[in-house]
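Field: COMPLEX_INPUT
Field: COMPONENT_COUNT = two
Field: RESIDUE_TOTAL = 620
Field: MODE = joint
Values follow.
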Amino acid sequence: MTIREYIELVFSDYTLRTITLGTAILGAVCGMLGSFAVLRKQSLLGDAISHAALPGIAIAFLITGAKNGNTLLIGALISGLVGTFWIRGIIKKTQLKSDTALGLILSLFFGFGMLLLTFIQKMPNANQAGLDKYLFGQAATLVEADVWLMGIVMTISVLVLFAFWKELKLLLFDVDYAKSLGINTIFLDILITSFIVLAIVIGLQTVGVVLMSAMLLAPAAAARQWTNSLGIMVLLAAIFGAFSGVLGTAVSASSNNLSTGPVIVLIAAIFVVFSFIFSPGRGLLFKEIRYWKNRNDLQLFKTLAFMQNIAKTHEDISHPHAIKILNNFQGYTKRSLKKLESREYITVAGGMWAMTQKGFDKATNLYNQQENTYD
Amino acid sequence: MREDCAIAVDDLTVAYNYKPVLWDIDLAIPEGVLMAIVGPNGAGKSTLIKSILDIIKPIAGSVRIFGKPYKQQHKEVAYVPQKGSVDWDFPTTALDVVMMGTYGSLGWIKRPRQKQRKLALEALEKVGMLEFKSRQISQLSGGQQQRIFLARALVQNASIYLMDEPFQGVDATTEKAIINILKELRKAGKTVIVVHHDLQTVPEYFDWVTFLNVKKIATGPVKDIFNDDNLTKTYGINYKVSVQQ
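Field: COMPLEX_OUTPUT
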């Protein structure tokens, strides 16, 4: 199936439409909430939570014998939350650093989950097949009810973000200050963490335990590159996430049913790489360009300063001087003279140059930090 | 405990992992003073401020703000944290940070509006940062970031200001600008408490001082208690500063 056939199919084929819508919503929710994880420097938290959800899925299956999505998701939710609060507990009660606590819970829960999965696979029960889809995800198994669930989670998340926007912003930027204003930061912390857990759990079926954290982090990391406003960052992360979901589903469906989770994550990674290189404010490319531009400007200003020294010797600063005088100075080229002229710092006429008032002022203020910083 | 104090600290003890950081602190800070808290590194200066602000829970003792617990009084208190305590690469602007000072007086859901914006702009002007209002905060110098934090506290229009090392890493001009604002606050009847490191400037800047080194060494008017004896007790070495009064 080519991409074009796929696009036609999205509008006609019910299954594909369901899957596309599902991955789009999932990407948006994850991008939105992932921004909070990234800005709180809890990038690893998502990874720990998703891995911690695995034993919950297995135990839910062992207890109920059901393979239906929602039962297993409740198991995932419970063990994800248990893992999260254990992590918080370890950080609070012991002197271990948070990365140690996260790593510990991640491997412990994942190991236990894998153990249970292999145990289930050896059981004489044909029903067990398919649990391992939670490792890498299988978007093809999404049904309309799943998409509804995702839609509800997204709606509630958006409402919560709206209601607690300024408090959440304070929580992210300056927790102690938030506390001093009488804001209940523990409640906010639990609230936002719970929603992150929820977003992860509803994504497990599609993206899988192993790669789920990338869904949280990649869109947020990409979005951070483009803006200096929290609101726009969250919005952009949601958009990037949604596009990763849609494009990932398209690619995986059009090329021999490649596993959807990894493809979505790879697309999200492309967003990240593109943003790191091409974003105007923080991107590597523009940083490099600015660096060279600044270097050239400095070279130009050196020439200007030299010219000012000559101009100073006359009462009238606009007194013309021969261009030849500048030959003694290395910074002089025809191009730099043209540039200075185009900026109206000097005038050039018939082998002579003369300084303008503007150029003179500029040269005087060259080292004035207040005027030049960060412009 | 005196009820007419701006801040009354009673038998306050704080410990991190069994190690006491503050030991049995009694402190009565009268209203309208400009007070320095001095003491060596690890003396518990920041911890004392955070305990007053109810950010750190003590294992014993109590703190009263104008005779009531902090929870009921948080609108009376403004806090200037250490500059290094936040990530300045956070996606926000100088004006936005200053607006955070209005969040405490707004309820849930409510957004800051024109009125809050005006207050924030006024505060920015007061600290001489108006022209930087739209700048991303990572592109401010250390002194400018400190002034933004000060402006955020000014917006709160509180009665008590608690500041954790507001002079850290700022140049002489900014230090003068900040101290002038602090003196103005005192003139307006506010109580200002500052964690301070430069002992030389204590007599010039402050009228009240607390010596702290896990225990409270002394507290009172600078002219009465800022002497070599208390400095030696606090810093443990034989301290000599020339105190001009």
